[in-house]
Amino acid sequence: MNAPEAELPNEDLKSLNKKSVGDQRTKKSSYFCKVCAKNFPTAYKLARHSVSHGNERPYKCPTCQKSFKRSQELKSHFKLHTEERQYKCDLCPATFYLPSRLRVHVNRHIAAYQFRCSKCDKGFHTTTELKCHDSLHHGTGKHICTVCGKLFPHNSALEKHIRTHDPDFIVQKYKCNACEKAFVHKSSLNIHKLTNHSESSFICDICGRKLKSKATLNWHLMTHTGEKSSECEVCGKRFAKKANLIVHKLTHSGEKLHVCDKCGRSFSQRCSLTIHERYHTGERPYTCTLCGKGFVSRSQMNTHIKSQHHNETSQSSVMSPSIS
Q: Region Disordered: which residues (predicted)?
């Protein structure tokens, strides 16, 4: 049985197709497959051939046994075991054997200081650090908590608030007699008792599921009604959970803190970087059981099933891997 084929991104095939036109005009270049050494007249034909090798990884590192699709990938990897890491980061103890890797690493440091002061342009890791800086150096006239960044109009209010961050203070306050968990406010203790130790529970009228609180029941009901209460003020797109809205907003702000070590491309979400890295490594963790083709993401696999196997079986017959 042939190895599962791996798909190339459409953008890569289009760019290679354009390149092949120029190659056909000159007919001076020859392209060879790094897996089987077969020659091709154009880069496009080589790319089409390369997917036939699927997930074959014949090149194995003798030191750590990690395997690779191409010999060049193994050579680059082997440098991790053999070459001196002469390129050092001035901002932390990290060292690298390639200057390109160092540049990508330094860019991560720069991106980490994304919260900048509008008055002096100094960068900070968090909004709390920025607020502290603004209060101390630019005279906002407000009292700021150095733990969480919350502002208070008077020092007495700040002192009262700071006690909520003190573990000893929390232990001495309101304790639950059922589980010994402690709370700063009595109202928080009452909510805890109601949702965790009360015999009564909140039941979904649609599916009968029992929930611990009115709030969790309301969130659960949205899965039945399709209600999306959190709206993006930029584009109007709505989300059921506020956490999903926060992630979505990164697409408008342009913040891309997750950087690929191999090519330097950056992404706003960690999951997008993980999928992108699979194009470099050749990993295809999602496999269609109907034809054996591998994919870098579940959504890519589902699209394949709908377009190629919609008359054969339902999506339930597709194998999904366990990814740690």
A: 1-21, 305-324
